[in-house]
Each structure stands twice: as C-alpha cells, then as structure tokens.
Amino acid sequence: MPFLKSLPENAGPPNVFKQYKEIYGPFSEMSQALMNGPSPLSPAERELILAYAAGVSGNGFVFTGHSEVAYAWGYERGLLDRLVEDVDSAPVEEKLKPLLRFVRKLMLSPTEMTQADADAVFAAGWDEAALHGAIAVAGRAAFMHRLVAGCGFEPLDPEVAARHAKKRVEKGYVNLYSAFRKTEG
Description:
This protein is mainly α. Helix content is 63%, strand content 0%. It is built from nine helices and no strands. The chain has helices at residues 13-19, 21-36, 43-56, 60-72, 79-85, 96-108, 115-123, 128-151, 158-171.
C-alpha cells in the first residue's frame, strides 16, 4: 500500500509521474535521451547497467522492472541475478566488467571512488562518454530507488514487469506514458 493516500493501492511510478507532470515530463525526456539516445553504450547495455545498479543497491522494484527490460533487449534471462552475485564469473562481455565494477562501487560506496576506478574503465577500452553514461544511468537507478522506497511501492510481479518491459523497448521512456507521448504508438 503506497504511503501517499492519493495513490491507488497498486500504484507505481507512472501514477506519480501523471500526478506531477511538470516534474516527470522532463524526467521522462531525460530518461529517453539517457537510455536510448546517442551513446557508446547500446540501449541494451544501459538497461543492463540500470538493473545491475538497482540490484546491487537492493532495490527490488527497479531491479525487477529493468532486468525485464534488459531481457527484452536480448540479454539471457537470469543474467542480472548472476551479475549481482558475482560480476567476474557472470557470462557477460569482458569489456563490460570494469564498467560494472565501477557502477557497483558507485552505488555502494560513492565517497570512496578514485581515479583508479575510472582508469580501470578506460583501460578496458571505454571512453569518457561511456563512463559518463554509466554514471548517469546509475544516478537514475539511485533516484528511482528513493522514489519507489519513499512512496512505499511494492515490486511488480515479474510477469507484469515483462509485459511492461516489452512496451518500454517498443515505445521508449516518453511515449510509454500517454501523459507525455510525443508521437502515436
């Protein structure tokens, strides 16, 4: 049951987004640019990073939802659980592992970040734009963590999350919500 009594019992972020359009309209546009706009990271990689960031920080709601989006983009089901458990043994491209280690540390101990953490990402062949992308995606995960925890939202059923994920892949972050839709779809 959400903490905000103006929300329905089964509320989630879309309910808040619709209630505060002046805030979440621009947030949805930023999310669209961040997650699907130009980047050295593919949209699938960005969803993987977002779900991973949520998973290592303990946000079941965001982890479930965005794991399903990563799977809808083509990642193997169960990969996110394996990554959260152990990046080094997870079956993911080796080049992604330093970036994921960076994100893990950023989510769990942000005040301990050092140049060496960034240098490990650069040594793997990523540029500053890729690192910034991962940092911003992790920041979005942290923001959503606070939003869903603060509002008292319960995680979605994985089957419901999978249906939502397919829509997110098809429509993106703006057109997913009718209140913010720019094009029909």
